[in-house]
Amino acid sequence: MTRRVAAPLVALGALAVALVACRSKRNTYPETVVENFLRACQSRASESACRCAIDRIQERYTAEQYEMIEAGIRAGAQPPQAFVDVATECGTAGR
Fold this sequence. Notes:
Order of helices and strands: HHHHH
Structural class: mainly alpha
Helix content: over 70%
Number of helices: 5
């Protein structure tokens, strides 16, 4: 294989590896947890904003962590700053 052909192939391979490595890693939540989140969220924001929010939350928290945070919020605790940030980023805050 000549260098003219090998260089683009090496670059393409490196790009593929980088894309796979950078792909967001999302934790899997039970379907009912996601449905409940979306239902509650959509009472005050758009479906796309709510999907953005749950996607970002799944990137940051395991299902177990999320359920603990959610239980705390139901008990009256303030949400973590990351939740507030997600709401702002996705457009679900204050609607």
